[in-house]
Amino acid sequence: MNLTRLTEKDIIGLDQELVSYSRDLLKKTGMTLREIACFASGVREEEFLRAGEKLKVAVVPITAGLGIIGGFVHSVQDIIRFLGFETVITRGTDVDGFYQAAHQKADIVFMADDNRFIALNLHNGFIADNGIATGRGYVAALHGMSRGLKEKKVLVLGAGPVGRASLEFLQELGAQSAIYDTNTLATVDIKNQDGVTIESDLDQVLIRYPYLVDATPQGSFLALEKLHKNIMVAAPGIPLGLTADTYAMIEERVIHDPLQIGVAVMLALASKD
Ligand code: PYL
Predict the structure, then answer these.
(1) For a Cys-Cys bond, which of 31, 71, 81, 265 suits 137, CB 3.0-4.6 Å?
(2) Which of 157, 149, 87 is nearest to 119 (CA)?
(3) Whole-angstrom distance, CA of residue 112 vs CA of residue 129
(4) Cβ < 6 A, ligand 1 pocket
(5) 3-state DSSP call for residue 59?
(6) Domain harbouring 172, CATH code
(7) pTM above 0.85?
(8) First CA to last CA across the chain, in angstroms?
(9) Is residue 1 part of a domain?
(10) Quick one: CA dihedral 23, 260, 28, 255, positive or negative?
């Protein structure tokens, strides 16, 4: 399964804007990036802070497939440093870089090829997957923005790794969850998961959901007139599913970033001892 692949322009400047990004996140959700990471991963904040003082993280550039994305490992490093962990980028790439990470006594190693982005805890072998972390992190952000998702009607668009992880966390939080995928076969195994509604006619039902998780790689297909009047959107999918003018009009009720939330939750998950 090849994920949407970030481009350098998706992440350019991310490192400069982390403070304003986190302030914006707090304004929209009432939660900091750290609180979102802790809520999504089940790690208590004091544990996470202590882990930051104790653990060392290495980020390894990977040349496989379509190769290095300009700014990718630096953006990952900046997000992790922002959360209080010592973080290095290995000089070597791929296996050589992984060797250097272990040699430099890294506790957690981050690396991504075109199909998988992981954080590996070298002590206990736990692997945090970016798709799962992103799905949980965006639901955590929506939980904050909505002041609690219990009993709320939430529609997940896209039954890929991110959408499925979002759905699982929504169920844990007691939301009235539904999921839609353009490919009806993609949701056939979810069919009778307790309480999950499988939607098949998006144009018909979209307006009935006040909360949306857009976990699709489809760009610019969600226009304001199709959405619930009080819509709140957690949009991990790249490119953004909202049309540009819709985004401009409801931006304060939309969560969308290329890497920050997913990396923050990966770090919290991998930091558990
Ligand atoms: C993790 C991102 C989020 C969305 N799509 C995923 C993606 O772009 N994956 C490819 C990442 C390649 C990184 C490259 C490097 O610079 O190390 N191998």
Answers:
(1) 265
(2) 87
(3) 10
(4) 3-6, 61-62, 68-69, 72-73, 112-114, 117, 130, 238
(5) strand
(6) 3.40.50.720
(7) yes
(8) 30
(9) no
(10) positive
- Nearest atom within ligand 1 for CA of residue 111: 17
Sheet holding 153-157, edge to edge: 197-198, 176-180, 153-157, 211-214, 232-234, 254-255
Pocket test for ligand 1, best of 10, 68, 69, 78 (most atoms within 8 A of CB): 69
Whole-number Å distance between alpha carbons of 255 and 192: 29
Parent domain of 251: 134-255
Tens-place pLDDT, residues 176-189: 999 999 999 999 99
75 and 36 share a domain?
Answer: yes
Note whether residue 215 is domain-resident.
Answer: yes
The Å distance, Cα 110 to ligand 1 centre, comes to 11
CA of 61 to the centre of ligand 1 (A): 10
Mutate to test the pocket of ligand 1, among 6, 116, 214 (most ligand atoms within 8 A of CB): 6
Write out the H or E segment, with its range, that includes residue 137.
Answer: helix 130-145
Torsion of CA 94, 95, 99, 105, to 10 degrees: 50
Residues 27 and 94 both lie in one domain: yes
Q: Which atom of ligand 1 approaches the CA of 6 most closely?
A: 8
Tens digits of residue pLDDT in 205-221: 999 999 999 999 999 99
The number of domains in the chain is 2
